[in-house]
Design goal:
single chain; 486 residues; mainly alpha; two-stranded antiparallel sheet; 23 helices; 3% strand; globular
Length: 486
């Protein structure tokens, strides 16, 4: 097997051509093919058969077109229930006192998560707008919720559908509001039960102030850990957001957002040096608008985007360009992404990013042009529902179950977190499994050309071609450093 993470960035190999003087036209064709490979693998989710050819005439235009149109909810996700329905079912299961009656309710919720997660993986493999889908995954990780909290586990994919997907090319302020007031986020970070010390509920000592949401909003979602806030600001934002809660079973519209005045801390607050007069829910709305427009938020978002798309140590010039665009466009994420696409560093031939396990599984599925996670028919419906277990087994083996990040910080986005010795062994084992399963049905030499184009080096091409079997050739390709990076 090839090493999964060679020292230093991976560069596309110099290719030999029969014509010693290919001329300007051939040189331009090679350059555009390289850019098409970058477009499909670095900015997209991996090339499907035909994708590099489709993007070759105008790689940047191919990406920009994906930002210009919103295809709506992917077909595989259209059967997913909304978050309110899932939270209401979760509340009902928790309320059930009889263990025998509660067991099937809990299992149904676990099955719903597994099915949703597999549908999400399948949607990423099948999408015709892979840049937009990558942005969904990026922002969903930025605003992480996790199945580590059983109260929200069955509603994590609906949360992404409702709070993230509609805003990936819109204004950051709109996404921030959608996320912060979403019942799944409020339950995940315990704001739903947070009570101001001087609120009616606080005075009766029914509940106390919870700072989780205030802390993560400042540290992770907006300003960043170096954004210039203090512990006092964390507490003040937590006080501002008291009352932002979720409708329980005794309320109307169970599982939806509900502002509870009896939990809200009365009086003025001071956040980041600015006074907020008593205004109930209005205080939180104003605070989120100001945080979205804060210069530290612009820089935090710029750094994370540049790190995700270009390099673990992002180029300062790119960060500055994204930061300026964020400020000038009032946080318009579509414009910020377009600015990223215009950066020369974003199109550098070096493949500096190691794929996460999710990226590896998805790009493999796309490269094979086959469903590596078999589907089963759902009767008369037009959409096939993926069988949950195969998809989740792959992601579980590689250590990245959907929505299972260990903390609100989300999954890491740097190579050191994904390419330790044990992780490398797991990737090779998984590649062998995929090879054994699908190798006899495909030609790995053709897959190498369609998936990697000019990124496939001579050593990889020769090893794949000389492999004793197609299964071993496919395993070699998936394990190759060219495939493991983007």
């Amino acid at each position: 097997m090839f090493p999964l993470a060679p020292d230093g960035p991976l560069k596309p190999p110099a290719r030999k051509h029969r014509d010693a003087d290919p001329g300007i036209g051939l040189f331009e064709d090679i350059r555009m093919t390289l850019q098409a490979a970058i477009a499909t693998n670095r900015f997209g989710l991996g090339a499907r058969p035909g994708d590099i050819a489709a993007a070759q005439s105008d790689p940047r235009g191919w990406l920009d077109a994906q930002l210009a149109r919103d295809p709506g909810l992917p077909p595989d996700l259209r059967g997913v229930e909304d978050s309110a329905t899932r939270l209401a079912a979760t509340y009902a299961a928790r309320k059930e006192k009889d263990e025998e009656a509660r067991k099937p309710l809990r299992e149904a919720l676990r099955a719903a998560y597994r099915d949703d997660a597999a549908r999400r993986t399948r949607a990423a493999i099948a999408t015709d707008t892979p840049l937009r889908e990558r942005l969904v995954h990026f922002w969903s990780n930025h605003f992480t919720v996790s199945i580590s909290r059983p109260i929200v586990a069955a509603a994590v994919v609906p949360y992404e559908n409702e709070a993230i997907r509609p805003h990936v090319t819109g204004r950051f302020a709109d996404m921030l509001l959608a996320v912060t007031r979403h019942p799944v986020m409020l339950a995940y970070l315990d704001n739903a039960v947070s009570a101001g010390p001087e609120s009616m509920a606080g005075i009766r000592r029914q509940r106390g102030l919870n700072e989780n949401l205030g802390r993560e909003l400042l540290e992770l979602h907006t300003l960043g850990v170096d954004g210039g806030y203090s512990q006092a600001d964390v507490r003040e934002l937590a006080r501002i957001l008291t009352g932002w809660s979720v409708a329980a079973e005794r309320d109307r519209d169970t599982g939806t957002f509900l502002f509870r005045p009896n939990l809200h801390e009365p009086g003025d607050k001071i956040l980041l040096g600015q006074r907020y007069s008593e205004d109930g829910m209005g205080e939180g709305l104003l605070a989120l608008q100001r945080l979205a427009r804060h210069p530290a938020t612009a820089r935090h978002v710029a750094i994370k985007l540049a790190r995700h798309f270009i390099a673990d140590d992002p180029p300062p010039a790119v960060v500055a360009a994204l930061e300026k665009c964020y400020h000038d466009s009032d946080g318009h994420l579509g414009e910020v992404t377009r600015t990223l696409l215009r950066q020369d560093a974003a199109w550098a031939p070096e493949a500096r990013k190691v794929k996460t396990p999710t990226e590896l599984v998805v790009s493999t599925g796309r490269a094979l042009g086959a469903d590596i996670h078999p589907a089963v028919d759902e009767g008369d419906t037009d959409v096939k529902a993926p069988r949950a277990e195969p998809a989740l087994r792959s992601l579980a083996l590689l250590g990245q179950m959907p929505f299972a990040a260990p903390s609100p910080a989300g999954w890491p986005d740097q190579a050191a977190d994904w390419v330790g010795p044990e992780a490398m062994v797991q990737r090779v084992d998984w590649a062998l499994t995929v090879g054994e399963k699908l190798g006899d049905r495909i030609d790995p030499r053709q897959i190498a050309e369609q998936a990697l184009g000019p990124f496939a080096g001579d050593a990889t091409r020769q090893a794949v071609a000389r492999a004793p079997s197609a299964a071993e050739g496919l395993a070699l390709l998936i394990s190759a450093p060219e495939f493991q990076r983007r």
